[in-house]
Design brief:
This protein is mostly helical. It has one domain. It is 73% helix and 0% strand. It has ten helices and no strands. Helix 3 runs antiparallel to helix 6 and helix 6 runs antiparallel to helix 10. It is globular, with a radius of gyration of 20 Å. The two termini are 25 Å apart.
């Protein structure tokens, strides 16, 4: 995920240090906030741009107005506020800080995504998929292309569903050193559970505010 943060920041700029300086918080706080916010942007992309044509239109300026990245991602202020509250709770920060950071991240992501879409091999795939949408026989292929794009972005953001855990097997009595290792593993497991709960809560907010689809 850190590679994507670097991708959305200007070349040679540490995105976490940059946001810490801009919003008057520590680099650790900026990192927690940005990592906690990123899944919400990925979920918004999955819902608002499930096909290549939706992706192309998502960041298109409206007539007479410049493109609003927050509007493009979330559509409504109420949804953005709910996401900010959830993210603040998970990151351990005041929601007002998250509300200040979200538009900056939205703008950076919009710029990075549109630039990448135009310069990468995906641009040709999008154009080909658009051509297929004009042919009834190609509709399903275009939908699959859009789904692949959404899946790629979700994987980049760490939203791929976790692999099922194997059934525990009986273990022999452990030494004190092994018990210490187990305690560390339990702490890591608890952290993962918290992350998964955060993702579930974000999904629930999107479903409540936007419905089961887009």
């Amino acid at each position: 995920m850190s590679n994507f943060f670097e991708f959305m920041a200007p070349k040679g700029v540490n995105p976490f240090a940059d946001y810490a300086s801009r919003f008057g918080i520590t680099q650790d706080q900026a990192t927690r906030a940005m990592v906690a916010m990123m899944p919400a942007f990925a979920m918004a992309m999955q819902r608002r741009a499930p096909t290549p044509s939706d992706f192309a239109q998502m960041f298109m300026p409206q007539t007479g107005r410049s493109m609003d990245p927050m509007q493009a991602f979330f559509g409504s202020r109420d949804l953005a506020d709910r996401i900010a509250e959830q993210t603040a709770g998970f990151a351990g920060l005041n929601s007002s800080i998250i509300q200040q950071m979200m538009p900056a991240m939205a703008g950076a992501l919009a710029t990075a995504l549109t630039k990448a879409a135009g310069e990468s091999p995906f641009a040709k795939a999008h154009a080909a998929a658009e051509k297929r949408t004009r042919d009834a026989a190609g509709t399903r292929a275009a939908e699959e292309s859009g789904a692949a794009l959404g899946g790629m972005f979700a994987a980049m953001m760490g939203l791929s569903p976790p692999a099922p855990e194997p059934e525990p097997e009986p273990e022999p009595e452990k030494s004190a050193a092994e018990l210490n290792v187990d305690a560390l593993a339990e702490m890591m497991h608890t952290s993962r559970q918290a992350q998964e709960e955060h993702l579930r809560n974000l999904q629930s907010i999107f479903t409540t505010m936007m419905g089961g689809g887009r």
